[in-house]
From TrEMBL:
One of its GO terms (molecular function) is ATP hydrolysis activity. Residues 17-168 form the AAA+ ATPase domain. It holds the Pfam family AAA_22. SUPFAM superfamilies: P-loop containing nucleoside triphosphate hydrolases. This is AAA+ ATPase domain-containing protein. Signal peptide: none annotated.
Length: 231
């Protein structure tokens, strides 16, 4: 089995057991492109993905480039993505309302929905927290976000066997001396597959780390027009 197929097979095997995937990395490491590549590769016929434009628009052009030599496949893939809303959320309140609708039957799920992607889950929350000076208000905002919006959506996806893919922004943690997702203490409550994309400058070497519990694997990769190449 080629490394390319091995990586996808490993991830798909994990997704038979869990329904949460966290994709993190610095700007420009390919988080959105990888989520798009992963979903487009794993979607079977008559399966669908709900792609939520939280702070980034759906990368339609990237998908077109991936399948530019396979126009029939491209047409099929495009039909399997339901993009919502039509524009990114202007505020965290708009995002909150939408996420609540997702798990409260207010959103018209297409049949055989296999994936929900939120790109990205950190942006509006990070901004809202930055506007608060009092620690207790920050904690309250984070707890409300997790308990009222994220956790019910996680439970809904678990019941319906829908894989929830969350794309995260990152920052450098001085205490830990490493780059971690924003609000990592919030998201580490979730037992899921953690995918971290790294790019080393000036060599431009790229590495993808797959972590599940105490197990971790890493692969070098590069982004090509047709998607991702691993070795």
């Amino acid at each position: 089995m080629q490394v390319q197929d091995k990586v996808l097979a490993e991830i798909e095997a994990v997704l038979q057991k869990i329904t949460i995937v966290n994709i993190s990395g610095e700007s420009g490491t390919g988080k959105t492109s990888f989520a798009l590549y992963l979903v487009s590769q794993l979607l079977q016929n008559e399966e669908y993905c709900i792609w939520i434009n939280a702070s980034e628009p759906f990368p339609k052009r990237r998908l077109e480039i991936m399948y530019k030599n396979h126009q029939r496949q491209l047409k099929e893939k495009l039909s399997q993505f339901f993009v919502a809303p039509s524009k990114v959320f202007p505020t965290i309140d708009d995002q909150s309302t939408f996420l609540r609708d997702l798990y409260s039957n207010g959103f018209p799920f297409p049949p055989s929905t296999r994936f929900i992607v939120i790109d990205n889950i950190s942006h509006h929350l990070r901004f809202s927290v930055s506007q608060l000076n009092e620690i207790n208000k920050r904690i309250l905002l984070l707890d409300n976000f997790y308990n009222s919006e994220l956790l019910p959506l996680i439970l809904h996806c678990s019941r319906e066997k829908i894989v929830l893919i969350l794309i995260h922004e990152v920052s450098f943690n001085v205490k830990l001396q490493k780059t971690i997702p924003f609000f990592h203490t919030l998201y580490k409550r979730m037992k899921g597959l953690n995918i971290f994309l790294k790019q080393f400058k000036p060599t431009k070497k790229r590495v993808m780390e797959l972590a599940l519990g105490d197990q971790m694997k890493s692969y070098k990769f590069k982004i090509k027009g047709s998607g991702f190449e691993f070795w």
